[in-house]
Every structure is written in structure tokens, then in C-alpha cells.
Design goal:
Elements lengths: L24 E2 L11 H11 L2 E5 L7 E2 L2 E2 L6 E5 L13 E5 L2 H11 L3 E3 L2 E2 L10 H11 L2 H18 L21 E4 L3 H10 L28 H7 L2 E4 L7 H14 L2
Parallel strand pairs: 1-2, 2-5
Antiparallel strand pairs: 3-4, 5-6, 7-8, 9-10
Length: 263
């Protein structure tokens, strides 16, 4: 389904029209570090008896009305890819749930489907987190809140400096926070701006240039509605330089370079 017109997140108002007798669940993506509107999503899920699987891979530490990302649905997925707000030294991830049945099922799936050594109950995977990755994550977890605070301060500077240029103004419900895995603006003449910034020595990226409904792998997938907002946003989004260790002068340099382009 489409995203909201004024955010990067799933539009709860579009969900019900997409539900069919084959629907089993809803997967809201907490994109870029901000939680989707989980109250409305959970209400719809309850009405139609659907599972809610949070994609919290970019939302470590984010809050939705005082509750942590990863605790808002039936089950959630987190990524520990090295570039994430909480990243390991290599690939990794975890699943969170308070449903005992799902918990036991995930334990089986992560280790070949084994109930005990050489006894298999279901087909599974080799998805155990390496001990060295867990050890690194355990240390970095102690610093996560401090890093998030730095991200939010840098984002606030970008917000203020790019007011009137960026189409997206993040609106947070009371008790909700954005952890800014990325700082993504939506602008006119995105490709021209990207080149302008590159000429100034500023590297930018596009997360993500091709929407899922236009990927070959999903060419037979059912699309509910036109996904007009998604298509529009894909042509506008640009990820600016962003990490907790950006210096004040570096942030100012990026802001000024963007402003120069739109004068």
C-alpha cells in the first residue's frame, strides 16, 4: 500500500482496501528511524485478526508514544548490519516478541529446526548470531542512547537550516521519538542537487531509488491503489551526510551548499 503524503511511512488509511481473504499480516516499516502509526495499524489488525510484524531494522531505540520499537506488534525484526544505529562488525539481526509460541518457533527456525542436537522438528535455517558479534553489540548497546541523542541534535540543525526546502517535516506524536538512522530530505530537482553537492565534495545517496512495486521480483504482486505518493517520493528523496560524529562546521557546510542550489 501507499505511504502517507507527508511522511515516509505506511498510510494506515490505505491498509483496509488492501486486505483480502488471503491476507495474513501487516508489515509496517519504521523507515529511517521513525515508527509508523501503530495504534491505527494494530486496530486494523485486531479487526481482521491479522499478525503485525514490525520492520524495526532502522529503528533501534525509537519510541512510539512511550513504547519501544520492537514491542508494538506481535513480532519485530531488527538488523545489526554495521551501518545501523546499533551495528555489529558483520551481518546480524534479532527478533523480538512477547508471544511464547512465536518465540519457540523462531528458536527452531534459527537453528536448522532442531529441538535438540540431530533432532529436527521443522525445516529451518542457519541464522544464529555469532558470539563475537553478540559481544560487540553488547558493548555498543551501552552507548546507543548517547549516539541517538547526537543524531537528534544533528537532525534538528538540518531541520532548521533546510526549512522551506525539505518537503517532509517529521511530525511526532506525544512520547514518540525519531532516531534518524538516516537523514532524508525530499526536494525538487533531486538529481541536479545530488550532482551540485557532489561538485562541492559532499557525498549523498538515495534510499531507495526503486520502490518495491517496481522491482522485478514483485512484478506479479498485488498492488493496492496507485502508490502515487511512493512514486513521487522516490523521485525526490536524498540522504544527506549523517552520523553521530559530524562536526558543526561539516553540518553547516552541507546546509549552505543546499541553500546555494535553491537560491
Amino acid at each position: 500500500v501507499d505511504i502517507e503524503k507527508d511522511s515516509h511511512l505506511i498510510d494506515p488509511a490505505a491498509i483496509e482496501d488492501a486486505i483480502t481473504k488471503k491476507t495474513r499480516g501487516i508489515i509496517p516499516v519504521h523507515l529511517y528511524g521513525m515508527c509508523a502509526d501503530m495504534d491505527r495499524i494494530n486496530k486494523i489488525a485486531k479487526k481482521y485478526k491479522l499478525f503485525v510484524l514490525e520492520d524495526a531494522c532502522q529503528a533501534h531505540g525509537a519510541l512510539y508514544k512511550g513504547k519501544s520499537a520492537g514491542s508494538l506488534g506481535d513480532v519485530a525484526a531488527f538488523s545489526f548490519y554495521p551501518t545501523k544505529n546499533l551495528g555489529a562488525y558483520g551481518d546480524g539481526g534479532c527478533v523480538t516478541t512477547n508471544n511464547e509460541g512465536l518465540y519457540k518457533k523462531v528458536l527452531l527456525l534459527r537453528n536448522y529446526g532442531q529441538t535438540d542436537r540431530y533432532h529436527y522438528e521443522i525445516p529451518g535455517y542457519n541464522s544464529r548470531l555469532d558470539e563475537i558479534q553478540a559481544a560487540i553489540l553488547r558493548v555498543k548497546l551501552q552507548h546507543l542512547n548517547n549516539w541517538i541523542e547526537k543524531r537528534r541534535k544533528i537532525a534538528a540543525r538540518y531541520d532548521q537550516g533546510l526549512k522551506g526546502i525539505n518537503f517532509i517535516s517529521e511530525k511526532h506524536a506525544k512520547g514518540s521519538t525519531h532516531v534518524y538512522h538516516l537523514y532524508v530530505i525530499a526536494v525538487e530537482k533531486r538529481d541536479e542537487l545530488k550532482k551540485h553537492l557532489a561538485d562541492k565534495g559532499i557525498e549523498t545517496l538515495i534510499h531507495y531509488p526503486v520502490p518495491l512495486h517496481k522491482q522485478k521480483i514483485f512484478d506479479k504482486a498485488r498492488v493496492a491503489g496507485t502508490l502515487e505518493n511512493t512514486d513521487t517520493r522516490a523521485s525526490q528523496i536524498l540522504s544527506l551526510p549523517f552520523h553521530p560524529w559530524l562536526a558543526d562546521d561539516e553540518i553547516g557546510y552541507v546546509i549552505n551548499a543546499v541553500k546555494v542550489f535553491y537560491r
